[in-house]
């Protein structure tokens, strides 16, 4: 494990050398970092890490994005997620897998009351409609590993929430 300073990521290029696969789940919230900080973390850091990984020999990059990602969206969150998807694809990996999960079900260290309420509601909905609106983070993690062990055909594979659930069962 290498600890890097994302503000000086280029100084840590050695940490990105010699890996066949790169996994990226980096992200923050607008509430925590402000709009500019959100863009810097969720787009700029991710793209820079992808470029360093590619330069270091990475062949397959796996990116956790979001349901509804769209570079043309009027909503900052979805627009940035769409932009980063496009930018990571342009880096030129042999294969790029993009996962677009719905609401992530997980325990958080920091207090996010509205997210907690949404998770409680969506957790109950998930008992009836398990793949509709949410996905447990451990399912996403299993899907990320499975997509490397069973890569899809073509240069880019995009997995929406239902496919993440299916692949995460493996």
Automatic annotation (TrEMBL):
- State whether it acts alone or in a complex, and with which partners, per the record: Monomer. Forms homodimers during oxidative stress. Interacts (via N-terminus) with elongation factor EEF1A1 (via middle-region); the interaction is direct and competes with EEF1A1 binding to guanyl-nucleotide exchange factor EEF1B2, thereby inhibiting GDP for GTP exchange and reactivation of EEF1A1. Interacts with nuclear transport receptors XPO4, IPO5/RANBP5, IPO7, IPO9 and KPNB1 as well as GCN1L1/GCN1 and LRPPRC probably through their HEAT repeats. Binds NCOA5/CIA.
Q: Where is the NAD(P)-binding domain?
A: 4-151
Gene name linked to the record: Htatip2
List the molecular function annotations (GO) for this entry: catalytic activity
User: What name appears for this protein in its UniProt entry?
Assistant: Protein HTATIP2
Cellular compartments per GO CC: cytoplasm
Q: What is the lineage of its organism?
A: Eukaryota, Metazoa, Chordata, Craniata, Vertebrata
- According to its UniProt record, what is one Pfam family this protein matches? NAD_binding_10
Record-level GO BP terms? import into nucleus
Against CDD domains, the record matches this protein to: CC3_like_SDR_a (cd05250)
């Amino acid at each position: 494990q290498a600890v890097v300073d994302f503000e000086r990521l280029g100084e840590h290029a050695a940490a990105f050398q010699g890996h066949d696969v790169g996994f990226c789940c980096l992200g923050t919230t607008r509430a925590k970092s402000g709009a500019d900080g959100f863009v810097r973390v969720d787009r700029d850091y991710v793209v820079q890490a992808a470029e360093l990984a590619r330069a270091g020999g990475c062949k397959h990059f796996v990116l956790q994005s979001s349901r509804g990602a769209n570079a043309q969206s009027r909503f900052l969150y979805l627009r940035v997620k769409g932009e980063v998807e496009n930018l990571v694809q342009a880096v030129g990996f042999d294969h790029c897998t993009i996962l677009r999960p719905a609401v992530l079900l997980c325990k958080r260290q920091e207090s996010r009351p509205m997210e907690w309420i949404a998770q409680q509601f969506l957790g109950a909905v998930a008992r009836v409609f398990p793949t509709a609106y949410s996905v447990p983070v451990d399912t996403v993690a299993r899907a990320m590993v499975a997509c490397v062990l069973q890569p899809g055909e073509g240069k880019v594979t995009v997995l929406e929430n239902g496919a993440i659930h299916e692949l995460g069962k493996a």
